[in-house]
Amino acid sequence: MKTINTKNENETLGFAEKFARNLKGGEIICLQGDLGVGKTVFTQGLALGLNYKKNVNSPTFVIMKIYKIRNPKSEIRNLIHIDTYRLNSEKDIETIGAQEYFGRHDCITIIEWPERIKKIIPKNSIWINIEIKNKDERTIKISVPQLFPHEVK
Ligand code: ADP
Ligand code: MG
Fold first, then answer.
1. Distance (Å) from CA 8 to ligand 1 centroid
2. What secondary structure letter does DSSP report for 30?
3. pLDDT given at position 146
4. Which pTM was predicted?
5. Which of 16, 65, 141, 149 could make a disulfide contact with 129, Cβ separation 3.0–4.6 Å?
6. Is 103 exposed, middle or buried (0-12, 13-18, 19+ CB in 10 A)?
7. Residues 6+ away with beta carbon under 8 Å from 76
8. Is there an atom of ligand 1 within 6 Å of 46 CB?
9. Atom nearest to 137 CA in ligand 1
10. Percent helix, strand, coil in the chain (nearest 5)?
């Protein structure tokens, strides 16, 4: 497990941006943490790191958003951003077809509130936990599964 601390929103953005540059495609990132810890901020940084220059908002009301990526240096073409906060069960995720994207080599999937759909989350997902340390300080813990096909730095 890797732990880092950030002192403000910009540091979280910057960290997530660098983190994204190590992704190869097919990764599923489970982003845990209470309301307001910075899950959406992390996702915005991740999107930047994947070369997505437009706005990324929380998909709380639509459950899933798909951002098209254009990056000549990688095969990643879609960022799938899921927020299960308003879901009642795993069934709803099945209904919107989110699982079709899980693990696809041209997709990165990032899930806010993954614990709500734990049953359908693949075992080789990356788990990231964000906690509030202080007012603007956050502790970010990253667990990469042992069976992970490649190293994430
Ligand atoms: P979540 O998606 O987890 O509910 P958001 O990303 O929407 O949370 O909001 C996080 C809030 O916390 C933002 O208003 C952001 O400015 C603030 N914030 C303060 N410090 C940090 C930090 N170190 N990292 C990320 N966000 C921070
Ligand atoms: Mg959010």
1. 8
2. E
3. 72
4. 0.94
5. 141
6. middle
7. 23, 25, 50, 69, 106, 107, 108
8. no
9. 23
10. 25, 25, 45
In the numeric block, which tokens belong to residue 11?
A: 């540091």
| Residue 120 token pair | 């359908």
Distance 32 CA to ligand 1 centre (A): 13
Cα 72 from chain centroid (whole Å):
22
Contact 152, 49 (CB under 8 A): no
Per residue in 7-41, pLDDT (tens digit) is 999 999 999 999 999 999 999 999 999 999 999 99
Residues facing residue 110 across a β-bridge:
29, 81
Q: What is the pLDDT of residues 75-129, one digit of tens each?
A: 999 999 999 998 888 888 888 899 999 999 999 999 999 999 999 999 999 999 9
